[in-house]
Amino acid sequence: MRSSTALLVAVCALVAAFGASGSAAQSLDPLPRPSELLFGWDTQESLDLWSAQAGAELCTDAKFVRDGAASAKVDFSGQPEWSQPFSITLDQPMDWSKYGFVSVDVYVPAESVAKIQDGDTMRDPWWHRIWLNAGVMLGERDVQIGQWNRLFWAINPDAASEIRQISFGGNIEKDPQSGYGAYIGPLYFDNFRGYTGSARGLGPGDVLIAGFNDEASTKLISDAAGDRTGVVGFTSNNAFKTEGDGALVLNLQGINGWNADFLRPTDPSVYNLPKPVDLSGASSVLYDVYIPPDSAPSWYNVGIRLQDQDTTIFADSPVAIAGWNTFVAPIPDSLRDHLHAVNRIWFLVGSGGDDAGKWKGPIYIDAVRAVMPAPQVVKGDLNGDGKVTIADATLSLKMAVGLSTPDAGAISAGDVNGDGKITIADTTLILRKAVGLTVSF
Asked: Are residues 178 and 278 in the same domain?
């Protein structure tokens, strides 16, 4: 991140315009997929495997523990703007090729972030981020102050079979009074997890918002935008699409600076999505962005804006890297009642305001989709109608005697006695509940 005046003004404008949606609480799991714990930092032995430039301690204070018995308390004070205080070198490499994403929970106490003197006022730093490097830089993620943050990074399976070093670091505005970065105390790390499956494209249960699968859908973007400097196009090239028949091309050549409303429809009555999408019950919005290395400026952000017909805007403005990016944008609870009919999309493209900040070519965007919460499993409900009836007992009996083979979902619902399989004992319990002889299992 460059610390130029132009950048500070741009980020300030972004925070003022969209800060409320970024800082609000989000109660749903942003990525309800199967996951595995890679590091939990629950014991001193597990923490001792990691090194920290300014020191790390085991923390058992419940306020700073997301799950389990403890977390890692890592001192970020006295570090430069770009710091690397927390890392591990592995004796045996880890294979992450089965993961689509990794995540970590980070708590940023308010007292660990210095106020910046700006004229006669004191303010929070314009940017405060955590980055992850696992052999290659996976990117920076914004963190909110005074709360837990769950940060996600997409994994390239072709470059993840032998992970030998993992490093977390910070990127925060410099405090001019100290000359160091504005992190001045500990941050807390917990629950470093890997999520199985692919990052790109539609996942199970995802709802497509914009797939850009034909020229007509990309022309909606172009026609609704009015005057523009970027050229909108369509590609069916397999190298740049992650679902369906095509992807959106944004030719950004020669564009620089912070463009927070890039290709925003000029007429508020004009909709540029093929049909409205209800995001009120979604966990998060995911989208795939490919940035060819020879198109990229010196630093850059790429994001999306989605607008409901009641004019509420959901905004995401992440830092991107060259190559494939898949961004996870949690939906704040405060916006849910205002996202029942999302029908407009536009973009953020941000870079430096100088010549080095000029884009040199196109980028590609595909599979803007909503991640829906995992359905609640009702124990004993084998036919999926949300209740336990004689029909479920009949299905259970067929599975118990071998007339049908239960899949993982059926076992999850039908194994009511917890022995890992469906037997006559489960059938008996389901039947008793179906006819009212018992209330619970």
From this structure: no
